[in-house]
Amino acid sequence: MADAVTEVLGCQQLLVGGKLVDAREGAVFETVNPATEEVLGVAADATAADMDDGIAAARAAFDTEAWSSDPALRARCIRQLRDALQSHAEELRALTVAEVGAPVMLTSGAHLEGPIADLGWAADLAESYEWTTDLGIGDTMGIASRRRIVREAAGVVGAITPWNFPHQINFAKLGPALAAGCAVVLKAAPDTPWCASTVGRIIAEETDIPPGIVNVITSSDHQLGAQLATDPRVDMVSFTGSTATGRSVMAAAALTLKRVFLELGGKSAFLVLDDADVAAACGFAAFSGIIHAGQGCAITTRILLPRRRFDEGVELMAATMASIGVGDPTDPATVCGPLISARQRDRVEGYLADAIDQGGSFACGGSRADRDQGFFIEPTLVVGVDNSATIAQEEVFGPVLVAIPHDGDDDAVRLANDSPYGLSGAVYGGDLDRAVGVAGRIRTGTVGVNGGLWYAADVPFGGYKQSGLGREMGVQGFEEYLETKAIAVPA
Ligand code: NAD
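Above: inputs. Below: predicted complex with nicotinamide-adenine-dinucleotide.
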């Protein structure tokens, strides 16, 4: 085990109305280390009655506390939370590696420390945001009125999150929702309950966030997410997860016409243009494609290579991916750890079998890694299929890339856009202006050019098409949690 990793601690309780409580029926469920298959411990297994308590607590807190009208209090509490989380960084690091299977290397970035620091950005915004805009005097039907536009908190937010980057996604919802003045019920993913419940414990014990403003619910029952989407006391659902679940969240939320914010799946393309440094491009595509075992929604998994350099590119990528291999997530050199669960490993293996059935072959990988324990799949590069193959159209969420040849910029853009998704993408080219021009033609919410990284607190992230609705992070992400009110008085 790496030096930085200490004992793994979890929290077995829910946070409801400011108190750490057991599930009403006392039920618990196991949380498992995906690298070792060992049971780490148990988390509270909330039922609908516990979720009802959480929603009631959030509603009461939002309706009665000064929270939504006091940005200075909110900024102070969010900074307090950031500082408390930072003081628990090693405990959270050990937990993230053990429960998520996240390579420890990544916990100094997007898996843990980056999102904690980004809470400060949300706190600053609570203080600097222009909450009121004076539109001046207008004349409507002969009546002169002074008009003012006020932005205010959307209300009670149901935040539903997945397991793949639990801290990043939990904090990317909590930070702006709290900065906006909302109360939150956070429903964690069943595969990573401790990542959420530990934050609940820290909120309860080490911050002045008023009781009920944050409630944390862990459960093995996915339906508690649906409960948040249908309950009329919830004003807004902020969901990150698969496109299929996003659809059902949106349909459920339609019953009460609640605001819906969706961050969903992706099948993002990496376009290597014909003037690119193919070695540099393929090295970057191979590395970034299998980070965290490919369990990232914005990972570029379709590699579009110029036809005349296709074999060269595939060879380079296969060699890089094979040399990276899989590793113990506690090892600081590991890039590609385990998949989250046996279920996810089986799902990825199903996609690999489909690729072969549809005429594909593996330039590297293609099977389970040769390890005694853990849900590991070898980094795999699929070739011999076109963009209509299942492996090129559906999100695999494993260390599996597919290489497809293209016949120039127009063809590469056509292939990149031939997807139901529109989350992210990358372009690599020799001429930067040309590469940026190609990036502008890709119908996705983010694009990196020649290794440029868009991920940051101030950059809105989200999807076109079936990759979602709305944006997370940035000012746009904060404004998802605001309502708009116009007030007019006689001038
Ligand atoms: P999932 O959709 O199965 O589950 C996500 C969350 O929704 C979990 O908390 C789950 O319990 C809950 N849920 C399940 N059924 C529900 C229902 N009917 N109503 C309400 N909530 C329900 O996704 P997952 O397998 O946990 O995560 C992987 C998926 O998340 C991938 O598709 C990935 O692309 C996506 N993802 C997207 C982003 C993004 O920002 N676009 C980020 C990370 C992950």
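The chain has a mean pLDDT of 97.
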